[in-house]
Amino acid sequence: MGKLSIKIIHAADFHIDSPFEALPAEKAALRRREQRELIEKIGSLAKKEAADLILLSGDLLDSDVSYYETGETLEAAFSEIDAKIFISPGNHDYFCRKSPYFYTKFPENVYIFKSSSISCFDIPELNCRVWGAGFTTPLSEPLLSGFSCDNTNMINLMVMHGDLIGDAYNHISEQDIEGSGLDYIALGHIHTFSGILKAGKTAYAYPGCPEGRGFDETGSKGVITGTVGKNGCDLRFVPLGGREYNTLTIDMTGRDDPCAKLGESIPENAHRDIYRVIFTGEYCENIDLSLISESYGDRFFHADFRDHTVRPGDIWQGVEENSLRGVFLGLMKKAFENASCEEKQRIENAVRYALAAIDRREAWRP
Q1: Which residues of the chain carry a pLDDT beneath 70?
Q2: Domain spans of the chain, in order of start
Q3: Where are the alpha helices (DSSP H) in the chain?
Q4: What span, in angstroms and rounded, lies between the C-alpha atoms of 14 and 100?
Q5: What is the CATH number assigned to the segment(s) 5-239?
Q6: Cα angle vertex 315, ends 312, 318, to 5°?
Q7: 223, 11 in Cβ contact below 8 A?
Q8: Which of 45, 66, 183, 210 could cross-link with 70 by S-S, CB 3.0 to 4.6 Å?
């Protein structure tokens, strides 16, 4: 009788060779080197977990072209990994003749799904069959629709880049997942860990990206590892411990020194991470962000400082104007004067947001 379960690592959306345009050139280059090192982290985790398979579900690379050293790094890192590696190219790193997937000489343990037609690779010693398909252009029609695996005695896995919501990037429905007969579908495309989900008897998940690249990818990032078998999955999320993108909000209401307030608010690990520092609340003058950056910029790997404060008591300025703004403020001020304390705060917040929209300014954040 074949193996009843196998150990996997499931990762996706590395976006190696991202430009990191928001960072200075030197730090952007460092971040690209660190991205390549993520593959070595995966190798170390595979060794620690004694993984049988590594499933890479697309957008391993940020585009269909890449730096030459990236191909060299992948080739060297993959050759040090004992597990078999399966790659499903995504919408960013779709398979084509100019792609590193075409010209890089990968070791024998690496299998790349080079067609948009679903195919499989049998691993008899693991009682396992790995299915997959890859993007060959930046967009893709649904690839899983109507698919059903033909040997349910084996452990059936699929590695695929696709979207459960949108239509342009290989739309995958829960009905398709449930009807597939697969034991686990290793998905890529969504940059946040989805949790381990299930449709019928088929488990599926997005691991999210292994490391953030912007402030839309904040917090801890990582991969999925554990076992998959005919009797279910035992999978967990594992952070990789890379640099994080985080937002730090500094409320200046009632404070008189933004430097002092920031100094006491900087997290312990800020020196290794990228932060957006936002000053909010009421403050008597514009904050000198150049001074803030000069005084505290070196406490972060990189920091983006923003002043979202408002002047105390200035929200009703213009209430007497014969304009849309004046009419709006008049109505809101009347409601404010007749409101409870709790309602007053909500009305103030609503007025601030509305004035930001009228003046086409950055919205104030309470």
Answers
A1: 1-2, 313-314, 359-366
A2: 5-239, 245-359
A3: 25-49, 68-79, 100-103, 174-179, 258-263, 289-296, 324-337, 341-359
A4: 15
A5: 3.60.21.10
A6: 130
A7: yes
A8: 66
